[in-house]
Amino acid sequence: MMPNVTKGSRMVSLVKYLAGPGRANEHTQQRVISSSASIVSVEQGEHLSAESALRLGYEMDIPKAVFGQDHKGKHVFHVSLSLAADEGKLSDETWASIAGDFVKEMGFEGVENASPCRWVAIHHGGSKAGNDHIHIAVSMIAEDGRKWSQNNDQPRSQTAAVELEKKYGLRVARGEHAERGYHPKEMVSARAQGLPELARETLQRCVRAASTASVDEAEFVRRLRGTGVLIRPRFAKDSTSIVEGFSVALKPKDPTEKAVWFGGGRLARDLTLPKLRAGWDGSPEAGEEARAEWDAVTRGKRPASVGREAVEPTAEQWEAYTAEVGSLYEKIKSVPLDDPGMWAQVARETSGVFAAWSLRTEAVPGPLAETSKALSRTAQLRRFPTKAKPAPLPSAKGAGMLMMQTSVGPSSRAGEALLLAQLRNTMRAVHDMHKATGRLSDAQRIRTAAMDRLAAVKAGLEQSPTMSSSAPVALAEKPKSSSRWLDAAQEKDPEIEEVKRLIGLNRPEAKSVRASATETPVAAREKKDQGKSHGRSR
Fold first, then answer.
1. DSSP 358-382
2. Using CA atoms, how far apart are residues 401 and 244, in angstroms rounded to an integer?
3. Using an 8 Å Cβ cutoff, are 29 and 125 in contact?
4. Which DSSP string do the residues of 195-248 spell out, in sequence order?
5. Distance CA 476, CA 496 (A)
6. 121 and which of 99, 174, 302, 523 could share a cystine (Cβ 3.0–4.6 Å)?
7. Each residue's pLDDT tens digit, 57-83
8. Alpha-carbon distances of 365 from 193, 263, 264, 288, 456, rounded to whole Å
């Protein structure tokens, strides 16, 4: 909930604007939801007409009219409190309670031995970007003529908003995690082109999928090119070989139109090239191969080499990488709550797995894409650790590779069902982390994705002929947890032992002589090679 504070000297004009149609006719059903006790010209819930708005504006300015000669300059405090578009809407009653708490936090009323200031909260339709919000107008001249102190009013409003977000279970906009916003013109452009989502959302999913499925930068470049998006490197100053960033864009449908480019950091805080490189092979050999791929991109040539992206995963890889995700869930439960960097890493990889799965199976963004987006917020920290620590955890990167390049068909359904069950376990750990730290909105977003959106994916996998066995189902033992939600959710997961049996009957077949049939899990490779080559096939 971001507070946007402005100050002025024309109270009547402000109230008339808030009661009017807005700059783009976005104001609808303008109504008063709460006010100070001294406001009597309008009632709570009353829809504002031009006449009632004028009357309200003059009433708000009575202290200024009485004590105006002693108070020169601006006396109108105006703040809008807004939710993100994907947070939905709040009732007038909830907004009224939030408004009342906000003015008390700011010291406009409720201060001992001090007269209150006049204020009114107005609610109307969503903004142009679809954000539910209210406006609070306050006279900074109190009933006794005292002038409200404006000292540090901006930081105070931010602090008040954070406290209210926690109290009402809203997304903490100024907390550890933060997503990139978007310009309203992006929404207009997406609608004009008939796109199912913003261009930046499609591009973010492509970058997440490609980066998670890759073990080095060269593979990332090839995979990203394979998604069909445009990509270009950003070279260091005075260099044509040192790449320090990248940009991506969707191919315009009309060849006469210009592509709209987004840098990795503009898509998401965790998708800058330096942050992505922290999870890849950083050996000199890998660096040379990456330069060759970037050079091919710059020249408009085919990829310089062929790697793992051209190889169908083997049955052994499916077993190894699925087991590694299961091990990740067991290990992540011991990660301290005050280690946001580690939690962000887990969320980034898990989000990337669902992004890869979505790109491979969803013609239009569906539950897999929505799940990836729900997890991506946890991956984006406002401040990342200055020094990246080596992760002592298993990795989900191998699962990203499986999901991005496995052929679609019944033969892979059993393996996907087991992997889905393991990924949902990881999501539960992330959910409990948010809940334990008081970020209830983030926790609810993860829970909704795991329990509701993925239910359709689970049902689709179970409809496969390979999943419709009449054999007795061996129920898996519930993971130990103190979370009631985890215990209830476990009963709804695919029966893991039965899925394992089905995998044994119907494994994905290896289709390439290049891939090693005994490739070790990602975490084991990292520990064994200590930053050297990660089992690349060339």
1. HHHH-SS--HHHHHHHHHHHHH-BS
2. 25
3. yes
4. -SS-HHHHHHHHHHHHHHH-SSHHHHHHHHHHTT-EEEEEEPTT-SS-EEEEEE
5. 6
6. 99
7. 999 999 988 887 555 678 999 999 988
8. 16, 22, 20, 36, 13
